[in-house]
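Entry: Membrane protein
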Amino acid sequence: MALLWIIIIGFVAGLIARAITPGDHHPSGFLRTTALGIIGAVVASFVGQTLGLYGTGQGAGIIGAAIGAVLVLTVWGYLQKRR
């Protein structure tokens, strides 16, 4: 059941990030959008734990995952422009 929630939260966070971030170099499709959201949640959890916003073992919620996914998309777009 936890895996289902990870997929749902990842997909929603990926959709939010794709809607917020400008540019046309976004990964598309269900799997890539979900992976984007999940990676964003991992990034947000790591940064939040490093800054002391989250305790050990706590993860980012939907808002944190979306912010992390926006950060990942920004880096992705920067790397795509350099090619």
